[in-house]
Amino acid sequence: MSERQRIVSGMRPTGPLHLGHYFGVIANWVRLQEEYDCFYFVADWHALTSEYADPTRTKGFVPGLVKDWIASGLDPEKCSIFQQSMVKEHAELNLLLGMFTPLGWLERCPTYKDQKEQLAQKDLNTFGFLGYPVLMTADILMYKPCAVPVGKDQLPHLELTREIARRFNHLNDTDLFPEPADMLTEECKLDGLDGRKMSKSYGNSIMLSEPIEEILPKVRGMKTDENRLRKSDPGDPNVCNLYPYHKLMTDPARLPEIREGCRNATWGCVDCKKVLMESLEAFLGPLQERRAACTDDMVRDILAAGNAKARAFAARTMDEVRQVLNFDF
Ligand code: TRP
């Protein structure tokens, strides 16, 4: 077995990934695969907690998500990529951990209350939705990772994971489950095209798989520094919605010229957008080539190999869990 420390993270298949996902999460995953033994998985059971009314839709997003990951630079030779529902041990551990989880911990979880309010159009008064953090705990503890790379929104779940691990260990007089640390992904500084948070539901995103011809008109319509009404007005890159895109995708050597041009009003937002279009094309081009080269058959093979690796690991953990709980007749 590898000497490297292990990390685990997952993502729900709820649609194609956009630039916000890339710079907020995936770029970090790609870096981490060089240093850690990484288990990255498609959390398709988790998607069902809120999308239970439309399971076929969720299933349809699975291959696309894997393709987006491969396009972004995840390398199945370096990390294990698998599908949650194909490693049934997660369900067994979920069931067992549920026995040790006080209801109050789940009811008090801030994401539980928030999500129920935000998704008021869906009926989330379900057992499965309340149990979301228990299933997530099973996903994580199964691989006994040192840490879990996630965004800030997931921290309450990770706190519960540690609490459940501690309670399981304490009640069973064992140290089977280590408490995984947070590995906070630096927050993505990219807002949507209209200046609001980038989100599929706002229609203000650029998808990784979106044809460049469709992206260009969107860039032309992007919101810039609102105080800059005429080209002769000086702008401020620090408040402009466009500049963060340049910082992430434009050749750093060009950034001073862009900043000064904006501040001195020697070039306009149209010039600035033209450069950004070139940058986007240069950034997304190779990514989309990799995506196009990743066929459905390849996705199947990647998942089959990753599932097998995850299953082998999960089987060992479950042997230990059953032993601790005296289910090993
Ligand atoms: N809850 C996570 C999200 O919505 C997805 C997820 C499920 C996850 N299981 C996990 C993330 C285990 C990290 C580890 O983004």
Q: How would you characterize this protein structure?
A:
The chain is mostly helical. The chain has helices at residues 19-32, 44-51, 55-72, 89-99, 103-107, 110-118, 127-130, 132-141, 155-171, 212-220, 243-249, 255-263, 269-293, 296-324; strands at 6-11, 37-42, 80-83, 147-150, 181-184. Strand 4, helix 9 (155-171) and strand 5 form a beta-alpha-beta unit. It has 14 helices and five strands. Strands 1-2-3 form a three-stranded parallel β-sheet. The protein has a two-stranded parallel sheet with strand order 4-5. The model has no long low-confidence stretch (mean pLDDT 94). The longest helix has 29 residues, at 296-324. 53% of the residues lie in helices and 7% in strands. The two termini are 28 Å apart. Helix 10 runs antiparallel to helix 13. It is elongated, with a radius of gyration of 22 Å. The protein folds into two domains: 6-190 and 295-324, 3-Layer(aba) Sandwich (Rossmann fold); 210-290, Tyrosyl-Transfer RNA Synthetase, CATH 1.10.240. Tryptophan is lined by residues 8-12, 43, 46, 136, 139-140, 148, 150, 154.
Q: Helices, strands, pairings?
A:
Elements: E1 6-11, H1 19-32, E2 37-42, H2 44-51, H3 55-72, E3 80-83, H4 89-99, H5 103-107, H6 110-118, H7 127-130, H8 132-141, E4 147-150, H9 155-171, E5 181-184, H10 212-220, H11 243-249, H12 255-263, H13 269-293, H14 296-324
Parallel strand pairs: 1-2, 2-3, 4-5
